[in-house]
Design goal:
By secondary structure, this protein is α/β, with parallel strands linked by helices. The protein is 29% helix and 23% strand. The chain is built from eleven helices and twelve strands. The chain has an eight-stranded mixed β-sheet, sandwiched between helices. A four-stranded antiparallel β-sheet has the order 2-1-4-5. α7 links the parallel β7 and β8. The protein is globular. 39% of the residues are buried.
């Protein structure tokens, strides 16, 4: 049970509507050889037409079952893996001049992509695997500064100590190695490394899932504090819905490589519209045993369809308790059913689109 659900806080203040990261129709496909029976090429659709905007100073939570494409989306945005189609645009302010700078990340390579990544960094999921065990903490945090040639040795030393203090680490431990720290402390090292270049956007790929429950709240509070002081924008990926509720201004729900619902955090938790979102939220434990006992959970039948299978109609239809006959032939599109609330479901008329035979397969 998430400790964050036991002590919910008030809704976080909404950030400005200035878009800093714009993703449109992002798709990532992985060829998987050929079907022996038909001879057709098998394609795994890890991310299938995902679109969203991240605003300045905002946290957009991305949730869904394991394997739904959350982390693949993050890595494609950073160009750590290739994308097959779509666009990713980054709009930031130059730290030296303060003037707006625009990057088309999907078109960049070489030095220009390296320049853009200075403004867009990632915090990895596993603090045990993401830190080089042969490097001291000081060298790990200073590595981005060395790569970009941004400071001399004495300046890097002062910068590393300042970053360690900012994330709650003792600068006296700068010569220690990662194995001498706890899991929570290692994740703070990873956060300090991500902040070394003063990025404006941080992609947090399940940054607390590998930590003890007692430590998660401390790391999340640190992220909230850093966002408040630095004006950071977060794309926060997680499977713990309690964590996402605590941190996010808006939430996007993914299923089988697609976004099925996007809405402000308080709204999606209060009035979820997509049947899959409703099922996810019904599984969140409630600390009050009386309420928990009487609560009705939505149990999904069947297994998640294979991402290798050619899709016809709504991908959630085989498991949906509210499925209609047309759900097998019509692909719902993400559309606004209410202001700031988008849903991809045929239960809501704006989501209706062309038959599957006319859509992308």
């Amino acid at each position: 049970m998430s400790v964050l659900l036991a002590a919910e806080t008030s809704v976080r203040q909404r950030p400005a509507k200035e878009v800093v990261l714009s993703v449109r129709d992002l798709s990532v496909l992985f060829p998987q050889g050929y079907d022996r029976a038909t001879g057709e090429r098998r394609i795994l659709r890890a991310v299938d037409g995902v679109s969203f905007d991240l605003h300045r100073g905002e946290t957009l939570g991305l949730v869904g079952e394991s394997g739904c494409g959350k982390s693949t989306t993050a890595r494609a945005i950073l160009r750590l893996i290739g994308m097959n189609s779509g666009s990713v645009k980054l709009d930031v302010n130059d730290p030296k001049t303060g003037k707006p700078v625009h990057y088309d990340l999907d078109k960049l390579s070489g030095a220009k992509l390296r320049e853009a990544r200075q403004h867009l960094q990632i915090i990895f999921q596993d603090p045990y695997a993401s830190l080089n065990p042969r490097m001291t903490v000081g060298d790990i945090i200073a590595e981005p500064l060395v790569i970009y040639g941004l400071a001399k040795w004495n300046e890097r030393r002062d910068r590393v100590q300042s970053l360690m203090k900012e994330v709650g680490l003792d600068p006296k431990h700068v010569l220690r190695y990662p194995h001498e720290f706890s899991g929570g402390q290692r994740q703070r090292i990873g956060i300090a490394r991500a902040l070394a270049l003063d990025p404006q956007v941080l992609i947090c790929d399940e940054p607390v899932s590998a930590l003890d429950v007692s430590v998660r709240s401390q790391v999340l509070n640190l992220l909230i504090d850093l966002q408040s002081r630095r004006g950071l924008s977060y794309l926060f990926i997680a499977h713990d819905l309690g964590v996402v509720k605590r941190l996010s201004h808006r939430v996007g729900v993914m299923y089988l490589g697609k976004l099925v619902e996007v809405a402000p955090s308080e709204e999606i938790y209060r009035t979820p519209k997509h049947p899959y979102t409703q099922a996810l939220l019904s599984a969140i434990p409630i600390p009050d045993p009386v309420i928990e006992k009487d609560r009705r959970r939505i149990l999904l039948k069947g297994d998640i369809p294979s991402p290798l299978a050619r899709q016809f109609g709504c991908p959630f239809a085989p498991r949906c308790p509210q499925a209609m006959p047309e759900c097998k032939t019509i692909v719902p599109r993400l559309a606004a059913d209410a202001p700031a609330h988008e849903v991809a479901c045929l239960l809501y008329p704006p989501s209706r689109t062309a038959p599957a035979s006319d859509s992308k397969k």
